[in-house]
Amino acid sequence: MSRVYNFSAGPAVLPEEVLKEVADEMMDYNGTGMSVMEMSHRSAAFQEIIDTAEKDLRELMNIPDNYKVLFLQGGASQQFAMIPMNLMKNKVADYIVTGQWAKKAYQEAQKYGKANKIASSEDKTFSYIPDCSDLPISPDADYVYICENNTIYGTKFKKLPNTKGKTLVADVSSCFLSEPVDVSKYGIIYGGVQKNIGPAGMVIVIIREDLITEDVLPGTPTMLTYKTHADAGSLYNTPNAYCIYVCGKVFKWLKKMGGLEVMKQRNEEKAKILYDYLDSSKLFKGTVVPEDRSLMNVPFVTGDKEMDAKFVKEATEAGLVNLKGHRTVGGMRASIYNAMPKAGVEALVAFMKKFEEENA
Ligand SMILES: Cc1ncc(COP(=O)(O)O)c(C=O)c1O
């Protein structure tokens, strides 16, 4: 077996321990004589899997009792429509546009009501987070929307925006479970799981109960109504059962590692190794203003496209894979999610130093 260090932004590296466990249980899950892939989602065995996953996630994130946890399909992108369809009672919402994913959500919301762009960092290629302490929040806004960690550009909100009392909705796809959060500050926290938690094809939505109503926009499909899934314990239809099972394993792994406070320390330590080197390098340069740097996604460039391509090629040959930046920005990006070991980041920095010496 030969494993690489996988710096993909998502689908992304998973803990080896979890991969081994699910491999061991592939033919016979817990004496059932079948794989979780083959199991009815109405079986007692699966009910226990989903209940345990939810319980462990609640414990990890300290989710208050007045929030529901939903395991839904359609990825994070489906939420771009589902949020306005369910929350736009006044048909007004404010969007802070800090990257492509926030922009897509903002554009989608325009189909359902008046979506206002109240702040943006597009003027500098989304390389910073705008000051959100006193924004022109619309008096009748149903919610204020952010993408908390910008996967493509490598920025992170270090402080939540002042929403002036309005409901905060956050896409946390690429920082999910990377550090503790105060769930009570949000109306909805949601994220695709394929970055920090599990296989692709599922989104976890943590939603305050008062936001789950039958009063949705006319024409909202049953499947896109939060109430449908909340009432059915995420089992209205056949869920992504295998994904829920793997996510549950990752929650157990996170608990065993010591929980989110410990993950935060580990993530800070890992990111510092890379950022410190970027700050000292003469060849490579980080693209984000230091105060808004993400702990999860670290974009960097040499300033020369050919040199970037040479770096990505040689790194791949050295077993450091998926370092090419997003197709819209170029350069490089190292995604260093929870499951990326410190040794992986050290190996990357050692390789970068060597590359810098050879190409000085
Ligand atoms: C922050 C963020 N939001 C949304 C998405 C879209 O997720 P999905 O492909 O699950 O729809 C991504 C995917 O990379 C992302 O990084």
UniProtKB/TrEMBL annotation:
Swiss-Prot/TrEMBL cofactor(s): pyridoxal 5'-phosphate
Gene3D superfamilies to which the protein is assigned, alphabetical: Aspartate Aminotransferase, domain 1, Type I PLP-dependent aspartate aminotransferase-like (Major domain)
Known catalytic reactions: 4-(phosphooxy)-L-threonine + 2-oxoglutarate = (R)-3-hydroxy-2-oxo-4-phosphooxybutanoate + L-glutamate; O-phospho-L-serine + 2-oxoglutarate = 3-phosphooxypyruvate + L-glutamate
Localization in the cell: Cytoplasm
InterPro entries the UniProt entry points to: Aminotrans_V_dom, Pser_aminoTfrase, PyrdxlP-dep_Trfase, PyrdxlP-dep_Trfase_major, PyrdxlP-dep_Trfase_small
Protein's pathway: Amino-acid biosynthesis; L-serine biosynthesis; L-serine from 3-phospho-D-glycerate: step 2/3
Gene Ontology CC terms, in alphabetical order: cytoplasm
Pfam family, one: Aminotran_5
Record's keyword terms, sorted: Amino-acid biosynthesis, Aminotransferase, Cytoplasm, Pyridoxal phosphate, Serine biosynthesis, Transferase
Cofactor binding, note field: Binds 1 pyridoxal phosphate per subunit.
Domain (Aminotransferase class V): residue spans on this chain: 4-348
Biological processes per GO annotation: L-serine biosynthetic process
EC numbers, comma separated: 2.6.1.52
SUPFAM superfamilies referenced in this protein's UniProt entry, alphabetically: PLP-dependent transferases
Residues that, per the record, bind pyridoxal 5'-phosphate: A76, S77, W101, T151, D171, Q194, N237, T238
Family to which this protein belongs: Belongs to the class-V pyridoxal-phosphate-dependent aminotransferase family. SerC subfamily.
Subunit structure: Homodimer.
Protein name: Phosphoserine aminotransferase
Organism: Blautia massiliensis (ex Durand et al. 2017)
Gene this protein is translated from: serC
